[in-house]
């Protein structure tokens, strides 16, 4: 086996390890459907976090949510300290960025969850 083959196999192994780790981490994040979130909103002990861009938020948002765009979350996570004892439910447009945000918040010690389908699914469920 040549050196380039060994490097290629090592790279592939690291890539597979990265994706398996990410898959397992995302499985550990609690997920709410819009119906479950609507029920959860009747209770206390939670905070809703919008991680979309300012332009997306200006177009529409879920009433009462906080706003910290995903790209600003690492430097602005201190703003969430007062919500550390609550469940922080993240949402975005489709549920992908909010899953990344929930993972980042989990690493920082927050109890974070994700809204499946994002605000798009939320809006669809509210029209029913």
Report on this model:
The chain is α/β, with parallel strands linked by helices. It has one domain (30-127): Rhodanese-like domain (Oxidized Rhodanese, domain 1). The protein is 50% helix and 15% strand. It contains 6 helices and 5 strands. It has a 5-stranded parallel sheet with strand order 1-5-4-2-3. β2 (46-50), α3 and β3 (66-67) form a beta-alpha-beta unit. It is elongated, with a radius of gyration of 18 Å. The termini are far apart. The model has no long low-confidence stretch (mean pLDDT 89).
Summarize this structure as a short list of keywords or feature phrases.
single chain, 128 residues, alpha/beta, Oxidized Rhodanese, domain 1
Order of strands across the main sheet: 1-5-4-2-3
Tell me the strand percentage band: 5-15%
Overall tally of domains: 1
Relevant CATH superfamily: Rhodanese-like domain
N-to-C span = 61 Å
Count every beta strand, where a strand is a DSSP E run of 2 or more residues.
5
The CATH class turns out to be Alpha Beta
Q: Number of helical segments?
A: 6
Mean pLDDT: 89
Q: What sort of overall outline do the alpha carbons produce when their principal axes are compared?
A: elongated
Based on secondary structure, the structural category is alpha/beta
Radius of gyration: 18 Å
CATH topology: Oxidized Rhodanese, domain 1
Question: Can you write the helix and strand succession as a string?
Answer: HEHEHEHEHEH
The percentage helix is: 40-55%
